[in-house]
Amino acid sequence: xxxxxxxxxxxxxxxxxxxxxxxxxxxxxxxxxxxxxxxxxxxxxxxxxxxxxxxxxxxxxxxxxxxxxxxxxxxxxxxxxxxxxxxxxxxxxxxxxxxxxxxxxxxxxxxxxxxxxxxxxxxxxxxxxxxxxxxxxxxxxxxxxxxxxxxxxxxxxxxxxxxxxxxxxxxxxxxxxxxxxxxxxxxxxxxxxxxxxxxxxxxxxxxxxxxxxxxxxxxxxxxxxxxxxxxxxxxxxxxxxxxxxxxxxxxxxxxxxxxxxxxxxxxxx
Length: 269
Prior knowledge:
This protein has helices spanning 20-32, 46-59, 79-86, 98-105, 109-119, 129-132, 178-186, and strands at residues 6-9, 36-39, 65-67, 90-93, 123-127, 137-146, 150-158, 166-170, 192-196, 200-205, 208-213, 217-221, 226-232, 238-243, 246-250, 255-257, 262-264. With 269 residues, it is an alpha/beta fold. Strand 16 and strand 17 form a beta hairpin. The chain is globular and about 55 Å long. The mean pLDDT is 93.
């Protein structure tokens, strides 16, 4: 059986019936059948976030929606939560803080079940923090240090691991995150960096993905590149000299082959 599709969203997606991205998620859930799950664990206001998505998903035609209310590690092992999850046909992971999401769920019985469900065909969507969590590795924090000189400090963490070789960043152009993603890829060249703009998504299906939405998706490929020099300042920041990294920029309708690391032909309307 094929694994489910992953709809990975750069955040701030349109939450209306005209929005292409969430409409696609509900379409996928209907094709699969079964209830739609919402996992708001990344958020500090999970009830409010859940209500917003329940309203949108119902307007888009979802009939049965289940909220996985996980706010402690104990609940990530709770039999009732696991029972609800086992019934789902699709799951949506909301935004918030990806470190909080990982701390609550990674390594739990719920994490194991999500992997099993996805591998058996359950579709999973995620936005913002829910996008970053899709990879095995993720950026959980970055900050400009402003002591004597400006330096970018990046902290890495572990995600859910649906896609082992992707390092996903979100709100990409809107929050000027190119520097932190290329810095992370320079130190993890086996990974493919994916920077997704707001109201834009990738739909991962096997070893390729298609871009959907308003803006751009950037792919940073450092596999054949070189980290020439690395300087760490006294305040903990980093400056890199790199060469031969590849950058791809894709818009709506274009696809990317993750095996060959090449852009594919644009989908015809």
